[in-house]
Structures are given as C-alpha cells and as structure tokens.
Amino acid sequence: MNSKERIILLLLSALNFTHIMDFMIMMPLGNYLMPYFGISSQQFSFLVAAYTFSAGASGFLAAFFVDRFDRKRVLLFGYIGFLLGTICCALAPSYSFLLISRIIAGLFGGLIGAQVLSIVADLIPYERRGTAMGMIMAAFSVASVFGVPFGLYVANHFNWHGPFIFVAGLGIILVPLIMRHMPKMDAHLKTGTAKAVTPLSLVGGIVSDSNQLLALGLSACLMMGHFMIIPFLNPFMEFNMGFSKTETPMIYMVGGALTLFSSPLMGKLADKIGKHRLFVILVILAVAPIALITNLPKIPFYLVLTITGFWFIVSSGRSIPAQAMISNVVPPERRGSFMSFNSSVQQIFVGLASVIAGLIVVKTPDNKVLHYEVTGYLSIGIILVSIVLASMLNTKQQQNNRLLEVYQHPEKETEMQERA
To answer: Which pLDDT tens digit goes with each residue over 278-289?
Structure first.
C-alpha cells in the first residue's frame, strides 16, 4: 500500500470515527436521556431509530444519482450537512427538538457510509481490500476506545450535550483537511456509462441480480443481529447488574481497544485465508458471548469485560470480510448507487432492530430492563442466517469469477476440457 492510499484511508477513517461516534454515543446516553426528558425506553429507541430511518431514506434516494458525481463532492456535501445536524443535537432543549435534529443528521449522514466504502472499493483492488476495510473499520474501535468513554465522561461531569459538541468540533477540523488532501474520485465517470437511474430500473436491476439481493440480505442480517442488543446494553449493565456509571464505559473502552488491534489483523487475515471462511468462523464464535451478555448472572466486572471484549472482536471482525464481499458485487460505474442502496438497507435494519428491541424490552419504575435475553436469542438467530446468505453469495461470486476468467482467456477453457 503506497503513501497516497494510506493518507486517503487515514482521512476516511478519521471521518468515519466522527460519523460512527455520533451514532454510537446515543446508545450509552440512554440512561441520561430517559431520566432527563422523562421518556420511556420506547421513546428512547425512537431517538436511535430516527437517525437510522432518515439515513436509510436519504441513502435510497441518493442511489438514483450519486454515480453521476465525483464521490469526494458527495462525501463532503453529506458530511457538512451531518455536522450541522449534530450541532442541532448539541443545542436541543427538548425531546422533540432532539428527535428532529437526529432526523436531520440522519438525512445527510445517510450519504457518508456508502461513499466511504465506494471510495475504498474504487481505490483498492479486491485482493487487498480486506486490509483496507480493516483500517476503515478500525474507526469503530477508536470511537469505542476514545469516543464513547470520553463522551460518557463529559456527560457524567458536565451534561449530555457535551458529546455532540465534541463530535461537531472534531468534524469541523476535518473538513478542510479532506478538501485539501483527498483527490477527485471521479474515475467511474470516465467510463461514459454513469447516469441517473429511475427507481424502477434500480430496483429492477437489483431484483434481477441474485448477487445484489444476497449482498443486501447479508447487510440486513449483520446490522439487525448486532444492534438488536446494543441499545439497552448500557442500561442493563447499570440498572440490572448494578455496575456504576464509571464502570460501564470500560465495556466500550476495553472492547474498542481490543478491536483497534484486531481489526487490521482481521483485514489481513481475510485477504490471506479467504473472506468467506473468516466470516463464517467469526459468526460462529459470536454466538456464545451474545447468549452470555443477555443472560448475564451476577459475576465480577472483570469477567464481564472479558465476555464483552471478545464479543467486540468477533462482531467488528465479521463486518470486514462481509463489506469486502458486498463491495464486489457490482462494477465501479454502478458501485455508488448500489452502495447507497446498501447503506439505506443497513440504516433501515439498524432502526428496525432498535424499534423491535424497544418493543421487547420493558423498563420498570426503578429503571431496570426486562426481557433483554429475548433480544439476544433473536440476535443469534439472525446472525446464523447470515452464514447461509454469505455462503450463497460466495458461491455466486466464485462462479462469476470463473466465467469472467474464461471470457477473458478462452484458451483456459480449452485446457480444462482437455484435462477432463
């Protein structure tokens, strides 16, 4: 990987850090926002879902036109709008204002993730893409190691507005750096095939392509399986398990610190042993910690950190080979549209997971949460389905690669026939 690629990936990782932190900080702020605004667990789940549903809607609409523009311009447009929405969150005086601000942030934030992944896929060949995805996904780890604990520290010592101010301030610093150092990302425009697509042609193209359908199903399972248990993890640890507000941030800090090191390694391992194989291994390894976390007995906090830390490693790790596989289902000239549609699906299913979790989990008058274990069982079932989808997608891609190789090198087909 050359220095130019590293600089671009570093900038994208920093941008991804602020974007992910803005979303993740809502999860542990549940036990601040619910008492502050006097809202129920269902109303809090709407705050989480508001961002994801609006991001899903904007991602869907963006799919019809993003491939007509330089990916850098689309990324900056979405990111600046997202920062404005985050500033509104920081200034929110009421639940309704905060809900509307989350919707605004989501509308622009829905453009970000797809553009980041599209730029990585355009820039890095598939053979090295696992390593690149590992660097991008490490932003999740940094957001956990530094962002979430720092955000909770600010909320503990000042108020819940502080974390949003921090995200917006850091993002404002990043904008000029991205404008200066990131080159134009318009190679997909030079093929002459980039054009606007109608909703009918976009959906028709996806429905008629089993690869795209499988990729979208895989994305949906990944998001829903993970975020089924995330929204109420912090309230469960504090109100049910009895851990203090100074202890619960350690769950994110330890888990994030571990994945900060494991994510790049997972990326390299995906390129070495195969993206599908690594994905299956990590999904299977995730079953036990999910079952333990959502049915946690009274155990010492260091054992809790061990279980949740392992869960962070395998959960973030499985996204790396999965995203590499998903980014490879369409050619570059259609990648922006597909990745935007894929991002839309991800956001919708994150929001759906939050809403379902909010309907399942019940908050008692003393703030304890009930039926949290049910969300764990659902999460396990969903991620096991993702193994089936990933295996089908991998088989399809291998068949397509063989057909492409024969098309480009007809002599190889003759050689195989002679050997047969």
So the answer is: 999 999 999 999
